Amino acid sequence: MNHTAVRSWQFDALRKTPGIVEHMLRAAKPSDLNTRRDGGNGWTALEVVGHLHDFDGVYHNRARLTLEEDYPDLPFPDPDAMVTENGYNEQALDSVMTLWRERRTAYLDYLTGITDDDWMRTARHPRRGAMTLHEQFVLVLWHDTNHIDQIVKILGDG
Fold first, then answer.
1. How far is Cα 25 from Cα 10, in angstroms, rounded to an integer?
2. Strand-pair partners of 106
3. Which of 24, 58, 73, 138 minimizes the number of CB atoms within 10 Å of its CB?
4. CA nearest to 147, candidates 44, 10, 23
C-alpha cells in the first residue's frame, strides 16, 4: 500500500470530522448540548467538542516535538482538567466549533508536505510507548471516531 495515499485519506477524513460533528450537534435539541452527560456525570456533547479542540493542540505540539527532537517524551495533559479550565459548557456551539476548526486546520497545515522520512520519526507516548509520527496521526483519526461515538451515545440517551 502506498503510504502517501493512506495519509491523503487520513487528511481527508480529519478535515471532514468537524463538519460531521457540527451537523450532528445542530440536529440535536440545543439544550441537550450542555445538559446531557456521558454516563450521567461525564462530559456533555459540547465538552467533547472542546476536548477535541484541546487535543488537536496537543497533537500539534506532539508532532512538532517529534519532528524537532530525537525521541522526545510526548506530553499527556489531563483532559478533564483542560475541559473544566476552558469552560466549554458555558460557551456557544458556534464559538467552540470555530476554535476547533481553526486548530484542526493549523494542525493539518503543519503536517502538509513533510517527507516520508519525517513521518517515520519516533517519539515516546506516555501510555502507548514508541510511536512514529504516522502512528500518532492514525491515533488522531481513532480519537475523532471514538468521540463521535461518545457524542452519539450522549445525545441518544433518553
1. 23
2. none
3. 73
4. 44
Q: How many structural domains does the chain have? A: 1
Q: For 103-136, what is each residue's pLDDT tens digit?
A: 999 999 999 989 999 999 999 999 999 999 999 9
* pLDDT of 155 strictly over 70: yes
Q: Residue 52: how many CB atoms within 10 A of its CB? A: 24
Give residue 124's domain range: 3-156
**Cα-to-chain-centroid distance, residue 127:** 17
Does the pLDDT value for residue 95 go beyond 90? yes
| CATH number of domain containing 20 | 1.20.120.450
* 157: confidence class by pLDDT, cuts 50, 70, 90: low
Check residue 9 and give left, alpha or beta (phi > 0: left; psi -120 to 50: alpha). Answer: alpha
